[in-house]
Design a protein that fits this description.
Blueprint: H1 2-27, H2 29-32, E1 40-44, E2 47-48, E3 53-60, E4 66-74, E5 80-82, E6 88-91, E7 98-101, E8 107-108, E9 113-120, E10 126-137, E11 141-151, E12 153-158, E13 170-175, E14 178-184, E15 190-195, E16 203-206, E17 218-223, E18 226-233, E19 237-243, E20 251-254, E21 273-275, E22 278-285, E23 289-295, E24 303-306, E25 316-322, E26 328-334, E27 338-344, E28 351-355, E29 367-372, E30 375-381, E31 387-392, E32 400-403, E33 415-420, E34 423-430, E35 434-440, E36 448-451, E37 463-468, E38 471-479, E39 482-488, E40 495-499, E41 512-517, E42 520-526, E43 532-537, E44 545-548, E45 560-565, E46 568-575, E47 579-586
Parallel strand pairs: 3-11
Antiparallel strand pairs: 1-2, 1-4, 4-9, 5-8, 5-10, 6-10, 7-9, 10-11, 12-47, 13-14, 14-15, 15-16, 17-18, 18-19, 19-20, 21-22, 22-23, 23-24, 25-26, 26-27, 27-28, 29-30, 30-31, 31-32, 33-34, 34-35, 35-36, 37-38, 38-39, 39-40, 41-42, 42-43, 43-44, 45-46, 46-47
Length: about 600
């Protein structure tokens, strides 16, 4: 009897437990319907996206807003509450370029939907990324969607001097992936800045000349993991500085001309020449005048190579030019020999004349140095033939005249050198034809007149000679009022007008600042309607056109400082609204 009672109690307990378990499940729908993140369906432009997936909004050529339509749908049989604040949160690297219109309500009943929109306004260039995050209960689910896209086209990187004031960026120089430049934000004067191409990544590195004074940095040069440059402060004048791109890592290297007097390294002529672990440049001291110096990036390692012209007289003339991996060449001066061709390895005491081109105390004035075929070509005056085309292999007495382009004492003044098809192109002057386009082969055994673009004694003044593939593009004037874009394959018949950008013989487009970016040349020109703006050419007439009317209408944006960066282009331009600021043009992907 007791055994039967025990079995009855056991059956009652099991029934009670089953009922209790069943009731608990009905009261906890999350236990029955545990779909994880799939309970909340996120639909973007008609397609469902799982958590942690990526929606690519594509490519944008302007900073006009891009609208992405979204829907939240409750797939479960119970209510879901959006628990975030805000309901849909935005985060990620470029979250400042993303905004969201939030759902109307935070509770989605079974099967219900709520709409929202994502607005992308890609202010900066290159790849852009952000993400949205949605929290929901019950279940404390977290949903994320990654957003990505690409911004190309024209971008004002940053309005450094906000409003209509001009930052006037200058001395643009890419080192690694960073752009270094001089700019004035209207508060700190013309100081040291850097940019990664984004607004937030364009920043003042250091106010070197504190307050509104200008440090006017220039000569940015990559040097052993740092950047060398010259800058001015009130205490030391214009001297040699260095930076690693940070405030703490920006410091004076050496006060070459002690105190407030300036040594003016490289005299603003451009980057320093780096040779054998040292940077070489001309600098001025009160005691020795302007002479050749070098540095290893330390104060102790910044030394005078030689007082070539003893005493306070100048012995070094900028620019200094890298002849090869062992020597620089430059125009040096002494009271005995005048200005002649010198070389140095950058080591103290290692400095010597290559050639006394104009014997005696007169000046040969070697200048316009350019590398071609393993030698350095330049113009110089030997006192008999005027300033003509010369060459040197850097060894003593190795300088020789290549061609006497303008016979007699008159000067051919060869300059604007470029190399195309292993041929040296340049501008030079002849009595009969004026300044026109000339060439010389790799043998450098003379020079050839290519074409009389401005027929007769008038000058076509070919400038900005820039190689592109097997040709060179350049500015030339068929008359004094008709300066346009020309192209040459280094032959006379192959030297022709590429495009009459500002049509008619009485109007010039004046192409300038020709700069190679990939397989294109960017330049500045005016078509007579839009002012001086940014243009591009692939070497064909149809492939030559204006990139953008940056300062709309007849006013000019006057782009300048064109600086390639990969397949993109940094430059400066002026608009009525923003003054002269830093721009970036990114070609379509």
């Amino acid at each position: 009897m007791q055994h039967l009672e025990t079995k009855k109690q056991l059956r009652q307990f099991m029934l009670f437990t089953a009922l209790l378990f069943s009731g608990a499940c009905q009261q906890d729908p999350a236990f029955l319907l545990d779909f994880g993140n799939s309970r909340l369906e996120v639909i973007i432009n008609g397609q469902t996206y799982a958590s942690d997936s990526t929606y690519n909004w594509g490519n944008a050529s302007t900073d006009s807003p891009i609208t992405i339509n979204g829907t939240l749908r409750n797939r479960s049989s119970f209510a879901i509450t959006l628990a975030g604040s805000p309901l849909i949160a935005v985060g990620g690297a470029n979250s400042s370029e993303i905004s969201v219109s939030q759902p109307a309500g935070s509770v989605l009943t079974a099967g219900a939907s709520e709409n929202f929109t994502i607005t992308v306004t890609p202010h900066s260039a290159f790849s852009r990324s952000a993400k949205i995050t949605i929290l929901s209960t019950p279940g404390s689910d977290v949903y994320t969607l990654n957003l990505s896209g690409y911004r190309h086209g024209l971008v004002m990187v940053r309005d450094v001097n906000s409003g209509a004031g001009s930052a006037s960026p200058s001395f643009l120089r890419i080192i690694g992936s960073t752009l270094y430049f001089r700019a004035n934000d209207g508060t700190n004067g013309a100081e040291l800045w850097k940019s990664d191409g984004s607004r937030d990544g364009t920043t003042l590195i250091k106010d070197i000349n504190a307050g509104a004074g200008n440090s006017n940095p220039y000569g940015f040069t990559s040097f052993g993991g740092i950047v060398l440059f010259a800058a001015t402060d009130a205490a030391t004048g214009t001297e040699l500085w260095k930076t690693d791109g940070t405030l703490a890592g920006t410091a004076l290297v050496a006060d070459i001309n002690g105190g407030a007097a300036s040594s003016s390294p490289s005299a603003g002529s451009g980057p320093f020449v780096v040779l054998g672990g040292r940077a070489i440049f001309c600098a001025t001291t009160t005691a020795a005048g302007e002479e050749l110096w070098s540095t290893d990036g330390t104060s102790a390692g910044t030394t005078l190579i030689q007082d070539l012209n003893p005493g306070t007289a100048d012995g070094c003339r900028t620019p200094v030019f890298a002849h090869n991996a062992n020597y620089v060449v430059f125009s040096g001066e002494t009271a005995t020999d005048g200005r002649e061709l010198y070389r140095s390895s950058g080591v103290a005491g290692n400095l010597s004349m290559i050639h006394n081109i104009y014997p005696g105390a007169s000046n040969a004035n070697p200048t316009d140095f350019f590398s071609f075929g393993g030698v350095t070509v330049f113009q110089a005056n030997d006192g008999t033939n005027g300033s003509e085309l010369w060459k040197t292999n850097g060894t003593p007495t190795s300088a020789s005249m290549v061609a006497n382009i303008r016979p007699g004492l008159s000067s051919g003044n060869p300059q604007n050198f470029a190399v195309v098809n292993n041929t040296l192109l340049f501008m030079a002057r002849h009595d009969t034809n004026g300044y026109e386009l000339w060439s010389s082969t790799s043998a450098l055994a003379g020079a050839t007149f290519l074409k009389d673009i401005n027929v007769g004694a008038g000058d076509s003044l070919p400038e900005f000679i820039t190689p592109l593939g097997s040709s060179a593009l350049f500015k030339a004037c068929a008359s004094a009022t008709d300066c346009e874009l020309w192209i040459s394959d280094t032959t006379g018949p192959g030297t022709v007008l590429l495009k009459d950008i500002n049509p008619g013989g009485a109007a010039s487009s004046n192409p300038a600042n020709l700069t190679v970016v990939g397989s294109l040349i960017y330049f500045t020109a005016t078509d007579g309607v839009n002012g001086i703006e940014l243009w591009r050419s692939d070497g064909t007439e149809t492939g030559t056109y204006m990139v953008a009317d940056i300062n709309p209408g007849a006013a000019s944006s006057s782009p300048g400082n064109l600086t390639p960066y990969g397949g993109s282009l940094y430059f400066t331009a002026t608009t009525a609204a923003n003054g002269t600021e830093l721009f970036l043009y990114v070609a379509p992907p």
